[in-house]
Amino acid sequence: MISKEKAPLTVYAPASMGNVGVGFDLLGAALAPIDGSLLGDKVTISQASNSTASPASLHASGEIHFSQTGIWSHKLPTVPEDNIVYQCAQFFLDKLGVKTGIALNLEKNLPVGSGLGSSASSVVAALYGLNEYFDTPFEPQVLLQLMGEFEGKISGSVHYDNVAPSYLGGMQLMLDSPSELCAAIPHFKHWYWLVAYPGISLSTAKMRALLPAQYDKAVTIDFGRHLSAFVHASHSQNPKLAIEVLKDVLAEPYRADAIPGYKQASGALNQLGMLTTGISGSGPTLFSITDDIGLAEKAKAWLTDNYVTQDGGFVHICHIDEQGARRV
Fold first, then answer.
1. Which of 20, 64, 248, 303 has the fewest Cβ atoms within 10 angstroms?
2. Which residues form a coiled coil (predicted)?
């Protein structure tokens, strides 16, 4: 039982790039726009008043009051029980045997099906926030496992390349060992990461279905070589080598044609002088890297004029978010 004096808590979980091009399902990075804005979802948790309970909010372990706001909330299910944040609260109340009412508001700031870890951001904000609100009953590795499990309900399979960086910050390498799920690797702090979302949504499950069931042995060797070389370059802080091997041989060849305008944008960014360009997660958001802020601004202007095609699309110049989920 929590006291009636418990103060409301608001947490934020940043957007993330799954795969980071070179590391399919094994590498992810959290994003922080350099203008100081927050690119990610927020969840506010407070104690619910029994007088405001409705039948739809009743749950075996107490009462869950759920609401959703934010610019992308209209894309979410209208039935509270169908929302993954509500389901996260159900799990906590059941697991802890808490009998008090609880209210959650999801501020949905990331577009669904964008390739920016939208569902992962919601899950991380909800579970991290609940864990904080109930005085951290779960240690970080266990909480990360729960985040992966819940996010897997949305994407169709359990993988941590979005939830791990959104929760822990930085660039995370997935280990999935019995003792450690992931580990942070150094990133290049002088790099600018452009992320451009055109305004359309693509189903993660459908984009994953585009991939072949089997790969040629030479392709898998290239994948292992590129990823291990990128990790080595990150630890040795060798940006030239990191760019040389930051290539996607597993997903981009099969997904590029399914993302409207991606190939043209990649070619144009190369002509501008960007170091490399890739697909964020399963798309349609792309990322592009440079170490020159002037060039980043030029590329942002080109992408805004040519890649963003729908209302709600955006382009951000980012660094890697080192903080991960946090109170705000």
1. 248
2. none
